[in-house]
């Protein structure tokens, strides 16, 4: 792994044109398309997410006409498109192209920039976030709570359930059906379909609480750590005494047991590990459930503490990458935008990590400034240092 920092242009080279072209051919994203090819749409949305504060179709058209973007994408001066064409392309483009780009980015970054978690397991945190929009603007989506009498005030929600390991996105699902309003459904489905490996642990909060789902994870070989409510009923099976009375920086460990959980009033005779601890700050009693039996109890609780990383990630997406703003009102367009936003987020996070920077706002600004500087250098090169030639790079009229 590079420990001497990385430049934006070198980071973008991990998504080279041959990779974009290869995925375009594999997914047939450009079948019967003459102008707005998948590669161009990816470049346009990625550039827009990285350099603007609030994307819209009108903003994207303006970005498309800008000298900086045309240089970034290598567009010919006479290339033009309209807002309606862009909206229609977003609504009908092959989503698989962008989904596979997200997966390829994750795989490349995991290989070249491994997360230095000093544990025997890679930690993947799973959680959901919702985006709300007026039902007048959004046809699909879930309704939370009592429907208002005035339909114009009714809000629709879209749920995004994401897996995140601190640097890369391991899973991303969009849910619009009412049944997925419950986290048991959304989180459970995403984790079941995720590609967790034997050396990875899924971490999630108390929103997922179905006992049969816990059992299914174990049967599938999916390791997990979660928390349970204090009212949880269980049957002790065995006691591990080595952890009792020990302390961590934030917890006092009270008990460490193998237990059976109750499921719909009956005992589910499947072994889980239940670690009980008391917060040293608030004195609250906490219950940690896992199917990891080999690790010490304090390491299991430390794994759960890593869940805060996905909370920070969601905050970063919403505050710096405008994740809650829906560029498109179609399921297709929303998925495409989300996938590209997550790719942009990973680019910034890797840039932040390798350049040993902190925070998010200034890191994004530094990333954008360096990108623009590289583009300006390319413009100077194309014009051979002669400002009179700049007009040849932009559309006339």
Automatic annotation (TrEMBL):
SUPFAM superfamilies: Ribonuclease H-like. The chain crosses the membrane at residues 333-351. GO terms for biological process: DNA transposition. It holds the Pfam family DDE_Tnp_1. This is Transposase IS4-like domain-containing protein. GO terms for molecular function: DNA binding; transposase activity. The keyword NADP does not apply. InterPro entries: RNaseH-like_sf, Transpos_IS4, Transposase_11. It comes from the Bacteria. Belongs to the transposase 11 family. The lineage of its organism: Bacteria, Pseudomonadati, Bacteroidota, Cytophagia, Cytophagales. Residues 120-347 form the Transposase IS4-like domain. It comes from Adhaeribacter aerolatus. NCBIfam families: transpos_IS4_1 (NF033592).
